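Co-fold these.
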Amino acid sequence: MRIASFEILKPWRTAVVCLLCLFALPCLTPAAAPPDAPPVILIQNATILTVSHGTIEHGSILIKDGKIAEVGTSIKAPKDAQVFDAAGQFVIPGIIDCHSHIAVDGSVNEGSVSVSSIVNIADVLNPDDIDIYRDLAGGVTVANVLHGSANSIGGQTVVIKLRWGLPASKLPFEGAVPGIKFALGENPKRSNFSIPGATPRYPTTRMGVEETIRTAFAEARDYKKTWDDYDKRVSGGDKNAIPPRRDLRLDPLVEVLEGKRYVHAHCYREDEILMLLRVAKEFGFKVRTLQHVLEGYKVADEIAAAGTGASTFSDWWAYKVEAYDAIPYNAAIMTRRGVIVSVNSDDAEEATHLNQEAAKTMKYGGLTHEEALKLVTLNPAIQLGIDKRVGSIDVGKDADLVVYNHDPLSAYAVVQETLIDGRVYFDRKRDISEREAREKEKKALMEKEKKAEEKKKAEEKKPGAAGEGGKKAGARPDEKKPEEKNPGDKPKAPQTVAVSGGAR
Amino acid sequence: MKSIKQMLRIAPMMAAACCFCLSAYGQSQPPSTYALTHAKIFTLAGSPIEDGTLVIKDGKIAAVGANVEVPAGAEVIDVKGLQIYPGLFDPITQMGLSEVSAVNATVDSTETGAYNPDVVAATAVSPSSEHIPVTRAAGITEVLAVPDSGGFDSSGARGVIGGQASAIHLSGWTINDMLIKKSVAMVISWPVIETRTFDFATFSRKEKPFTEAKQDYEKQVNELTDYLDRARHYAQAMGHGGPSDYQRDLKLEALAPVVRGQLPVLVFANRVRDIRNAVEFCDKQKLKMILAGGEEAYKVKDLLRSKGIPVILRPTLSLPIDEDDAYDRLLSQPAELAAAGVRFAFGSFDNSFARRLGQQAANAVAYGLPYDEALKAVTVYPAEIFGVADQLGTLETGKIANIIVTNGDPLELSTEVKFLFIKGQRTSLDNRHQRLYEKYLNRPKAAN
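Predicted complex below.
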């Protein structure tokens, strides 16, 4: 009986695989053939917004081996170059999203404990997440993929390039300093998430958040000392030294103390921002970026003095009490007070128009065109310590570029191409031209699946062919499993609240 | 206990917010006469007027044109170099009904229970909401406050009949000043077949087989059918005498204008199956339907056009509903609907993102919608769809003077609103955000 039902299952499995293929379709076409980098590309006649050294009208960019080889007005096309005429188009450096949750398999929150430094987002990168492609289509080339905000000290984070079509191992930005997520305020103290009947998790106040972080770093310091002592004994020739027991939770915090891991801290209110800066000073580490930092404008001088970056939203506000004093002028005030500021998405959709979000700072606070553009290019590159490689259009940097049909700081601008490492990863014309074929492919797969279903039904009708198992195997194929992603991250549509808490 | 504590925590904040807001209004003056001169005027009822004059008197547009005389005693504002448009109209918001969406004490947008046809948005609109001046500063002069319409951080717990949407001006001391029309539509959340739900009582996911989910759906639709039948009978009874002749039922009474086809139903549905079912249902029930959401409206564009059903589109800046949809599916949908002759308007479906209304429309233009259509879809089309176009939506003599004066295209990101008039009153652009900006811009340098 069992064997029989397994046999019955077979066509079903095919059907299910087909179904899965169907949902993965847009991945299939571009993913099947990751774009090959032609050795040499010349982009001509474009308005080039270099971000680092002004605008070049009718400019050219020469790309060799994935790097920017030359930028100027009169570059001769080398013999073997593939030439793009970009007349009337605008080229900017690839957009860098300093706060993203794309390409993550499953929930971004390990919400069970208040210090979850043991987990690492890099372990769960999903290269097939369609949001990679969607954000690429919005000009994003680099994303700081973060753990959620359910814990005072959250999980380890990773910077990726949106190399759509390549395996997970090729996504991380080579050499980028890894990070760790911290979170302050309502989310780690679980103000808006209570599970009926469950005992509240410490901390439930901002005071407790401070002590959670201090306690963890006091432990990390002691732990570090045991290792330092051990290393000293070993280097002193002590052959009997016994290594201390590894603590996977404290290892990343030791890296923070040693400056080998960046702290990206989710925060809202001015008091908690100052709290974290004090704690960092006490334990001798730097906070690399304050994330969201919606009241950063109130303590901009203090943030600037600490040498800490600020990565904020353009105009989100009032979705919770700690966001009630959020203002769209935040980025401008902090910029004027000497803070390196970026505008981030925290959301796969918001990331598709970060250029527009940056543009709002010209209206709210009067940033210049170049300052506004920096908020999503050079500044996040500096914040992530990757500005030697990306963030502006300069010779020697990675050829991560976005081509728009209008000024990218206009709501009417549409991304035409996105390049990473000199390869075209998104091409709007190609995307549109392939739609018909994709639709056909999808229909064919659905047809195939339907036939398999009919065949199965016919077999089921034969007496004795299928027992309980057959019935079970017939569980509805048309039920697409809803996305399991933490809905707390996706704020703009009516959503259920995640059990484990949101990220923003 | 917890909720009382929460209330106590919020109360001082709300009180402060109210004071803040009232002092900022400053609009107690009676209506006066204004003449806006030397403007480029986009009336949206004909071609733009270069170097035109617009006269406002007693809250209404008294004259508009190239050769209009400035009446004696008018306050003249020379707006040379600027442009005049009708104020923008956001047809789906929770304005005044929800302040801080994560804090229940500040949220009045969703009543409990499946059938609440008698509840009216205008009742709970807080004129002191900080959202009102913030939204106004973005050039939005009137909105619909819509009960049970979701929004940022919504729990997703929705009824079937959510209540009555109210059209309001974004200015006024009390709701009486603000009201355009108390009841403009009855909100229906079209039931969907859901196999997975989230139970807030136990904070856990629940799953059920498709057949069961379908039965639940059919049960909901049958209940709705029965409810409307009862309303129809009730309406008949109402037509045959006063309330003393029958037992009053306020819920059924509220539905009488709906079943009589006088009050439209604003039906929230996104999936093509749900839209089709809703259209079929409203057709059968002879209800005047307006579709809200419409993420897959393009799949039934011919049906919507042939039935004359207008759509309030949810934000164009949204990810496609399915993984295998084109990445720009919602951005290009408005162009597709316009080409097919479907009437639509843009809505923010929110409060804190209401000021993105122009951006939503502009993005549709970037993906193929003619500019004029986009502009109308945030002004005159919503006014038409909700039956207030005789008063609002264009700059024509006799209409309510809800007007914005800008330094450019009102849909573009960098454009600023320079003057704003609501009911012919010059209305402050001051708001919480700009006040906090000015305060902290002037913070003395911190001694570190």
